[in-house]
Amino acid sequence: MGPDYIHGSQPTSRYLALAPSYKNPAITTETNGLKLSIDSTSTWNSQFERSELIPQTTANLGTGNLFYHFSVKRSATNAPDPTLEHQVCFFESHFTELKYGVGSNPSNLVWMVQGVEKWGTPFTADTWFNFAYDINFSAGTVGLWASTGSSPLTKVVQNIGASTSTNSADWHLGVLRLVNGPGTEDWYFSGVYVENGPITTAIGTGGGGTTTPPVTTTTKTTTTTTTTTTATGPTQTQWGQCGGTNIHLSL
Question: Which Pfam families does its entry note (predicted)?
Fold first, then answer.
């Protein structure tokens, strides 16, 4: 995972901060976690608020069976608004992603495949939610592994068909909110890496068989047929379609 960044018009430090207190304490292999913020200045196309990290790598992140790992948390301070749709850790085609503020219970963090809700859990404050997207690019399927805190990942959704694809530079680690508004929202990320199988289920020990190294900055389920919005843009190569500012960030 490379440190290119999509953000609003202000300095990077307004949207991105690193600190040991921002990481999942169960992850001992990294020094810092990432606090990622959106506010009224982080707009794109006068319609979306977004802050995201995107890969910069020569590795092929779209072949075989890969596991995209990350942990995410919110706080009661600058909490995300559950009345507005948020797209979290998504690919440009949105074949799989997390969402918040949508679905059968908008206060749930839900996992989507092709815009349809397949799993959800209450997005409680100050709880680390650990995920791995189980993507079989060869078979065209995706599944989900999940846990909280220091608990090992378990498979919560078996692989199902999806239009799996990536150019190895279009996975967005971060948040896109579809509605602009006042105030700041803070999201926390930790334990980010991509690996070949077999999956590492222990939290904090991943990286041994990774396709890309970890980014050191970084349950109750529901099944529905809810369909939500996909934010679209013009078709361009690499980050042109993002419409944001891309800079190189030293981690």
Answer: GH131_N (PF18271)
Q: Where are the alpha helices (DSSP H) in 57-213?
A: none
| Average pLDDT of the chain to the nearest whole number | 82
| CA nearest neighbour of 214 among 109, 97, 73, 70 | 70
Contacts of 13 (CB under 8 A, 6+ apart): none
What does each C-alpha distance from 54 to 137, 143, 147, 171, 183 come to in angstroms?
19, 22, 24, 6, 25
Is the pLDDT at 75 greater than 90, yes or no?
Answer: yes
DSSP letters spanning 130-176: EEEEEEETTTTEEEEEEEETTPPPEEEEEEEE------SS-EEEEEE
Separation of alpha carbons 130 and 70, rounded Å = 6
C-alpha distances (whole Å) from 241 to each of 45, 69, 190 are 11, 24, 26
Does 5 or 76 have the greater pLDDT score?
A: 76
